[in-house]
Please model this.
Amino acid sequence: MLLLCSNDFSNSTLIQDKSNTIDCKELQKILTRINFYMKKSQLKDAYHKLDESIRKKGLSFEQCCTFLHKLKHDTWQTKPVNQIWFDLFGRFMNNGTERQKVSAESFLRKFLIKQQKEKDVELEDVRQIFAHLNQLEIANVASSKALYSDSHMYIDKDHFEAYLMSAENDVFDPKKERFDQNCMTHSLSEYWINSSHNTYLTGDQLASQSSVEMYMYALYRGCRCVELDIWDGDVDTDLGLPIPIVYHGHTMTTKIPFSDIIDAVKVFLSFNPESYPIIFSLENHCSIPFQEVMAEQLLTILGDHLYTPSESTLKGALPSPESLRGMVVLKGRRPAGPTTEEYNTDDESTDDEESLLHTGEISTDHVEITLSHRMAPELARLTVFHGIKFKNWDTSIENPTYHMHSFSESKVRSLSKQANSRQWIEYNRTHLTRTFPSGKRVDSSNYSPMVAWSNGCQMVALNFQTSDSPLRINDGRFRENGGCGYILKPCTLTTKDDFLKPVSSRLSIKVLSGSCLPKPKGQRRGECIDPYVKLSLYDEKEGKEVCTSYTTNYVVDNGFSPIWNQDKYTFDVCNVAVAILQLAVWDKDIHSKDNFIANSSVPISCMRQGFRSVRLFDSNNTRSGAFDFASLLIEVKLKEQMLEEI
Model:
């Protein structure tokens, strides 16, 4: 509360007289900014109930915090935390007075173990929690102000609420969120890898800007497989050297030098030397002289950060992320020489070019020219993953492990519906598959990654420049394991056991309340929001995506402390290891399109039961500025069977 208020309190546009205090009029502006509407008459009544000396001088920062806390506290007769407090610990204490505090023993037994279903928690853990909570600065305006001499023995209702809304009580299991280095030694084929499509684009696929900054944006968002579409550019008039360029070929998108991207990735690795491998997915349209320059630039700029395979390292299982730490790995074409028999145009190139043919952007003559490109040996020897055309799964499984496939989203749907789709999962146990959006998505929208993930595809590439629901699902998936970009796939996708089937479950969610919900895009100005929550379960069943959604009612003019606390929403989860629940907060607008505010996507396998906070993220998957404290309070119930089996 103190930090939330400080930004608005200290803003010079509110405190015009530089007195470091605010009057009733300025307080009204603060309330509007934090999305809490009060009629002027109501605010004046509340303000005039303050001590006369305070009214004359104006509210200090600390007094403003107390005032805001009192506004929240006055709604406690209907506030969910009040009901939770009394239901768990009883309304009255042993001396007959209304309950003001709870002991560490009761907190452990009645709350953490019985209600929250937590294991491996002991009394000493609770005492440390209490000691930390009692150090928090909370404007206590209603409960007893007596300080407990043993701060680790008791907490009051205010501090209980602080715990409920804390990161420590988040619905996303902190054990799953933490990085685990012990799980990073498996073959690359056993991981989901955070992947980007047409990484260089800032917008649509036809006329937007290409930017080196998009690679940094994607990498810092957790992406570890980026795409480069490389074409012949100009020739340097001074040096006489070819200049390979990156852009979306035969469109009006702008062009950037290939070397600039390599420089940017080198800078990223300089600041993040322990990063797990960054895979360059090279869609190579260059002639031999330009490919030779590409190879030289990769070697010169990246130096020891470029992984160069040998014939011996290409045999057997793929290397692990741990063994490739701090390295760049190339995906492209491995065969060298002038022949084109093994040269794969890549399903990706074909898909994009077919789309452009439909839109009239290129001619059939160009496609034929593209297919005739050859590989420079200098570049081929640097490449690890060799893209090949798909014929059938029996042939693919017998190929060397460094051979891989790339499929468009339509091909993914088609393959997953076939009777032999289990062979795709078998293939992905030892080989890699990259999937990508259809070239027909000229607006750079995204497809759902669920079906590809459920078939064990490692690199499910999305348009990172478009913060839509699929990308937010991706953010939730890769929040696990410290956001390192590599998530170990579930055993149903890595173990060759026909008896292992996806685990199902039933999930129940009740949205209780929200806290500190900002305006759309974190804006400072504008009317108070009317927030509602959309709950969507993204799941997979028998090769098809299953999506179930519910929407709460909207709360009028209150993003500061909205209360829902009405319906319970039940979801039948078909594939617990893959399914993800997305909780998205929107601002209701009866006159135009509703505005996205914030979101949290939580894999069911990472979800905790009980009364849990939900930390919300903005469209860039960050919690900064106005989103620092944005959160929900929900009640989660999940079948015990699922918890034991995952």
User: Anything to note?
Assistant: The first helix runs from residue 2 to 9. DSSP finds 23 helices and 21 strands in the chain. The longest strand covers residues 505-515.
